[in-house]
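REVIEWER CHECKLIST
Item 1: Sequence provided? yes
Item 2: Single chain? yes
Item 3: Sequence as submitted:
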Amino acid sequence: MTKRRVGLLFGGCSGEHEVSIASARAIAQAFSTSPNDTVYTLLPFYIQKNGQWCDGAIAQQVLTSGQLLLDAQSAAPLARWHLPPTVADVDVWFPILHGPNGEDGTVQGLLQLMQVPFVGSGILGSAIGMDKLAMKMVFAQAGLPQVNYRAVSRAQVQSPSGIDAQLCDALEAALAYPCFVKPANLGSSVGISKVRTRGQLEAALDSAASYDRRLIVEAGVVAREIECAVLGNDSPQASVVGEITYQSDFYDYETKYTEGKADWIIPADLPASIAAQIQAMAVQAFTAIDAAGLARVDFFYVEATGAVFINEINTMPGFTATSMYPQLWAASGMTFPALVDRLVQLAFERHT
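Item 4: Structure as written out by the authors:
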């Protein structure tokens, strides 16, 4: 039987470059495990932070060592987004790129132009899943409950006279404190601030505006943070649900990616009806944005009232062996190697 050649695409031009490498290493290990090693041949493709694609020995070196390749270390002259000839050998792509230029529809558009199957959502689902404002509008249209929020533009924040006092007045009146200020189109908790005072609000708006021209300000809520994994295409399935606990003020970038800063409870200790509601809402969110393959959907559960609010969907979640997405499926009875195999099968299914 001829092996299928999987193009493992990792690295990328985002602040989550190192996270992508870690995810790629775990996926590569899963493909080298029986029976995957008899079905697939892995072809690694590493995108440097400057946008240069590397294949062959260089990509394998990064995959083996886990260390990023500095732009100056590349032996080849810079040819940003120039594709190596070996891309023509790929039967199916596994793009494990996180953040901007990786999970926002950009690289998905490139792969779609190649007319080769790829794991994960297409352009539309990826773009909506990355942009928090667009995501919230789609969720609202789908009837999914959310915490109160307001949209803010960079122009409102970076005016010649400084941040408009009336803007802050309106945000305080609508959302109260504490609230969260976020760039709309940036992944993995980068640029997010929790604020409790007018001064913190102004500083947070200014900080978020340095990352994106569209911002979102959300009301804070005292709630448990629950996550659910979804797998499939047109008939997606939900995993068991898990809970994240941590001691920091909120689930920021440092907490998310520093070992020991957060703990997971899988399955979450929830009433069966609440768990079922979250699973149903996860599938509904997945379908609403036209996601494909995989996604992790995050929720707030207000135990005092029994209310469940959808927070966001992540169409290319972290994929190390200890990441929440594969752990949720492990608890649902699917091993890591079986999961990557299933994702490749779904990629072929979506392409036909």
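Item 5: Key structural point noted by reviewer: The longest strand covers residues 237-246.
Item 6: Recommendation: ____
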